[in-house]
Amino acid sequence: MAGDDRPRRGLLVVNPRARSGGLDLDEIRAVLRRGGIEPIDPPSPDRDCKDLIREAQETCDLVILGGGDGTLNAAAQALAEGSLPLGILPLGTANDLARSLGLPSDPVAAAEVITRVPARAIDLGCVNGHYFFNVASVGFSADLAGELTSDLKKRFGTIGYAVAAVRLLRRSRPFTVYIEHDGTVETVRTIQVSVGNGRHYGGGMTVQEDASVDDGLLHFYSLEVAHWWRLLALLPALRRGTQGRAADVRAFETTEVVLRTRKPRPVNTDGELTTYTPAHIRVVPKAVRVHAPPHGAQGPGGTA
């Protein structure tokens, strides 16, 4: 939309409830303006971000979202429906998508990326019509999402995940899930099933060590452990993304999978409980464009 003679217009939506949502935006605004982007505040910032993004399609050139993975998850539907590229200011607790994209953790440095790095296409996951960036899961991590209050995240940051996990771990029990994929149906007893679109999730976990948000694949794993303490032994592998090598972990790559359980169980997408089983999960290749370094590159102050 923007011509050569005027700045690009960037809808700037910041979630005030994000862990760093109270950040003074003056420096970020200055960085954006120096880079040729005029930040546009929404007329009613308390409105649903999906509505704000939909209305900006004809008046803005990009969307700039400040928040964590929950904020991005809430915006995913409108971003997929529209055509505006996305710029990310990581202001949340875990910022898993920002990590997967190699964006810097410092919001000011992330604003520099928005002005300098071209947008590139990435995939989205979709479960029962709900889009997600990082991962959809059933079982332990979905139960954890229900336990992990916003106050806990704000007070303890990523340590809050560990605090909530310890509370929940000893109460967890295996459940039966029927997995349909690539012409097969498998019946397993598991603590958790995860289906990743991106690489990172859950405040430091890794779906699969070489997964990326633009590989056109879903990365599946199921933790079929006999005792809760086995999860503690698997923790280093879960952080590296090598859990698929363990004998009691089922792992594969696919583009579509259906998860059925004996009774409806909540599905966690990017830290938010958004739907229930049966869960029909598919990858949507190149669904959204994001200002981020090329795959495998490292952003300033970030990790690839």
TrEMBL record:
SMART domains: DAGKc. Transmembrane segments: none annotated. InterPro entries: ATP-NAD_kinase_N (IPR017438), Diacylglycerol/lipid_kinase (IPR005218), Diacylglycerol_kinase_cat_dom (IPR001206), Lipid_Phosphate_FormReg (IPR050187), NAD/diacylglycerol_kinase_sf (IPR016064), YegS/DAGK_C (IPR045540). Keywords: ATP-binding, Kinase, Nucleotide-binding, Transferase. One of its GO terms (molecular function) is kinase activity. Residues 5-131 form the DAGKc domain. The keyword Kinase applies. This is Diacylglycerol kinase. The gene is dagK_2.
